[in-house]
Amino acid sequence: MAWRVLVVEDEWIAAQDARALLERNGFEVIGVAQDCDGARALLEEKQPDIALLDIALPKGTGVELGRELGARDIPIVYVSGCSNPEVLEQAGATRPRGFLGKPYTEGQLVSALRVALAKSAVPPDTRDYRAAVERITNVLVELGVVAAGSKAAEPRTDVPELSQLSTREWEVVRALLSHERVPQIAKRLHISPSTVRNHLKSIYGKLGVHSQQELIGRLL
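User: That's the sequence. What structure does it adopt?
Assistant: Structure tokens below.
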């Protein structure tokens, strides 16, 4: 039987990317929610084995939902590009089973969920939450998420299709490698989010990928 996953992600394209990657790897996605209310409605219908939860939900409710899921004994793997120490400490206190920094690759996503599901069901003592925060922070540092405003990772040079990208598409790619999301990219480039998504579709087509995760995996 496939593991059942609840995906809670406020950015619709990222949520659908996660669904596609999970289903391709044998998971069953019981539903996708973009906020706490949507997640609660899905939980009334089905009980997931694990939740993939974006910390940065609207009005800072990601950690709030994490507490509710913990009360239901539903394991959590947090996903976010957030590097706010206070938020990370609050997230660590909910005893997550894992943390993924954005953007992540297909392999990182699948591995994080499989490792989380394989962990003991016995939760750590609440006093251990600071150790959990430290582990999360270490992961963020390794993924290059914590260093806010840091220079974008340089893409591989052995991808010939990169020569097909326009100047604007290159700007979008570099923003993704700096862990920026669609709304952030749109604001910085002074274009609309829909225009950013159109650029992404063009980039996907030129590089033969189907999601931000596949794109990052191809370039790094």
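The two ends are 33 Å apart (CA to CA).
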